[in-house]
Write a structure and sequence with these properties.
It holds the Pfam family Snf7. Residues 1-26 are annotated as: Disordered. Keywords: Coiled coil, Cytoplasm, Endosome, Membrane, Protein transport, Transport. The protein has 163 residues and is an all-alpha fold. It has a domain at 24-113: ESAT-6-like (Helix Hairpins), CATH 1.10.287. It has five helices and no strands. The protein has helices at 3-9, 14-19, 24-59, 64-122, 127-152. The model is unreliable at 3-8 and 11-17 (pLDDT under 50).
Amino acid sequence: MSKISKFFKGGGSSASKGRGGPSPQEALARLRETEEMLSKKQEYLETRIERELAVARQHGTKNKRAALQALKRKKRYEKQLNQIDGTLSTIEFQREALENSHTNTEVLKNMGYAAQAMKKVHENMDLNKIDDLMQDITEQQDVAQEISEAISNRAVFGDEFDE
């Protein structure tokens, strides 16, 4: 198998073969590496553009052919720079989408974990027992309120007469 077909078929990474694809961390790392590489190429092209512009200025009216060649190279470098800008935007968008997907996956896993914990906590609870307990609590609160009212009313001795 040729190196090119291995590259496009994903034959490079043995870690991703067994699981059916790279992990989110692996993919993020590769995207970041690609971003760094393209950023370096961007810087290189910017310096080349400046250099060609300087060459064009230097030759100016003295050597129009050399000045035009420098401007053509500058234009070619600018075109490459615009392509790299577009590629970087695409990679950045993909990286952000992957990060968000990974975050959503982790949140979902943790929510499932919390749901299992809640099931375990509620496992020993019976709604009928809870309802009975709440009724008992309400009854006891009513009794406590009646006792409190009875104690707080003034006892009037001898003020009321039965005729």
